[in-house]
Design goal:
seven-stranded mixed β-sheet; binds magnesium ion; binds adenosine-5'-triphosphate; Rossmann fold
């Protein structure tokens, strides 16, 4: 499915559509260049799932943020600074996936070897300053 976003709130709305179909234990892989809107997309997911959207930021240095949503936890990871899949494995990625939360990974292509087979892949491409192409492959 390909969506077109004209602004931030569109991107959050598209994330809200994806959030409706999520089940506990799902993993989302987010890819796109710096500033594409990956973290904004996560903000939309958290808001739609009843969490505090203001607490969402890129976990670039700490690797993992955890947000309590209404019925589920969200594990937000960022693979930008990791050398590869082993680094995420070392912080317990496999155990996280087994917690029944929603796991979302920015820069997921860097760790594609450890993503579960059923991962939902989302690629965000900047068209211009405020529009984005958002491709969701489930
Ligand atoms: N339609 C849009 N959707 C999402 N973000 C948009 C849109 N238009 C403009 N922006 C801007 O693009 C930027 C996206 O930043 P964001 O932190 O979400 O990117 P990112 O992909 O997570 O980057 P990084 O790889 O650095 O973590 C924000 O400054 C946001 O305001
Ligand atoms: Mg980000």
């Amino acid at each position: 499915m390909v969506y077109h976003s004209c602004n931030l709130s569109d991107t959050e709305g598209i994330a809200g559509q994806v959030a409706k179909r999520l089940r506990p234990g799902d993993c989302i892989a987010l890819d796109g260049e710096l500033g594409a809107g990956k973290t904004q997309f996560v903000r939309g997911l958290v808001r739609a799932l009843g969490g505090d959207a203001r607490s969402v930021s890129s976990p670039t240095y700490v690797l993992l943020h955890i947000y309590a949503c209404a019925d589920v936890q969200m594990f937000h990871l960022d693979a930008y600074r990791v050398a590869g899949a082993d680094d995420l494995e070392a912080i317990g990625f496999t155990e996280l996936l087994a917690q029944g939360g929603i796991t979302v990974v920015e820069w997921a292509a860097r760790v594609r070897d450890i993503l579960p087979e059923q991962t939902i892949h989302i690629r965000i491409t900047a068209i211009d300053e405020s529009s984005r192409r958002i491709e969701v492959v489930e």
